[in-house]
Design a protein that fits this description.
Layout lengths: L6 E5 L17 H9 L4 E6 L4 H11 L6 E4 L4 E6 L2 E4 L1 H7 L8 H8 L6 E2 L10 E5 L5 H14 L4 E8 L4 E8 L4 H12 L6 E5 L5 H4 L5 E3 L5 H13 L6 E3 L12 H11 L4 H5 L8
Parallel strand pairs: 1-2, 1-10, 2-3, 10-11, 11-12
Antiparallel strand pairs: 3-4, 4-5, 6-7, 7-9, 8-9
């Protein structure tokens, strides 16, 4: 008897599941994504920089499916979601906060407070293991990150510095996280906790803070609406790390849709998961090969 395939589908939210970028959304994409995620063999995970409240608001506003798990705050929080009830996985925070060497959020904020070019983000965008700043989009990114890394090294703080862009607000975003608290580490932790093999995982993303996953061995799709700069960087990093076969960039004609947002996610599933192609063919008369 053949075992049914199963899938841990891990998706960024903004400009990936959520069509809130400049590129057009295919009119069928979101509904087809929702129908696909209703399959009991699919475990849906949102992997996002948003905090819990903003995730909940986005699910309602954009009518996207409820996830089974949510990795939020750029990987610093993991929640299990059941019937709209959210339960934080406390073990994850216990694991990651050790990297900060006993320092807390307020202490690290004080260390970095005199760094030129940084503006602290709102309190709602901070948490016990995430320190977030705004920065001018034209700032010398390398110089800024080198400055911050030097300060952290002085205090033996092991941190990940995640730089991305808010294209709508036209501002730089910087997250200072425990070194093992990236989206990639959180995804790997959850994968192991749930007992999925790497071959049963697909990640979808679009932006700079998705690069650690996009360049990793995790089968990943970069949706077509991602910027050319992110596409080039993802391809370069994946090749350097020997993982080019694990990265797929959705094409404009993928699955007879446009490859943007949910259409790109489904194209990635089609590419990496042949066992799910029959489901993807439902309500669709033409498919990519």
């Amino acid at each position: 008897m053949m075992t049914k395939p199963r899938l841990l589908l891990c998706c960024d939210m903004d400009r990936t599941v959520i069509p809130n970028g400049a590129a057009p959304e295919h009119p069928e994409a979101r509904q087809r994504f929702k129908q696909f995620c209703q399959n009991q063999e699919v475990t849906l995970v949102y992997v996002t920089g948003r905090h819990k409240t903003l995730v909940q608001e986005a699910i309602e506003e954009f009518d996207v499916p409820e996830a089974d798990f949510v990795i939020s705050d750029v990987g610093t929080k993991i929640y299990q979601v059941s019937n709209t009830k959210w339960q934080e996985l406390a073990r994850w925070e216990q694991e990651i906060k050790q990297a900060w060497g006993g320092y807390n959020h307020a202490q690290i904020m004080a260390f970095l407070s005199k760094t030129d070019g940084l503006v602290l983000q709102e309190a709602s965008k901070q948490n016990t293991c995430k320190l977030s700043f705004y920065a001018d989009q034209h700032i010398n990114q390398k110089h800024l990150l080198d400055q911050i890394q030097q300060i952290l090294n002085q205090h033996d703080i092991a941190a990940s510095l995640i730089w991305s862009m808010d294209e709508i607000a036209q501002t730089g975003l910087l997250d200072v996280l425990p070194a093992n608290a990236t989206k990639l580490h959180a995804l790997e932790f959850l994968q192991q906790q749930l007992g999925f093999q790497l071959s049963e995982v697909v990640f979808a993303g679009d932006s700079g803070n998705d690069l650690p996953v996009l360049a990793s061995p995790v089968p990943s799709v970069l949706v077509a609406n991602a910027s050319n700069a992110v596409k080039q960087e993802a391809e370069l990093l994946a090749t350097r790390q020997g993982n080019s076969d694990a990265l797929y960039i959705a094409e404009p004609d993928s699955l007879a849709m446009n490859g943007n947002y949910c259409a790109g996610i489904l194209a990635g599933v089609w590419h990496f998961q042949p066992g799910f192609r029959a489901l993807l063919q439902n309500n669709n008369t033409s498919n990519d090969t």
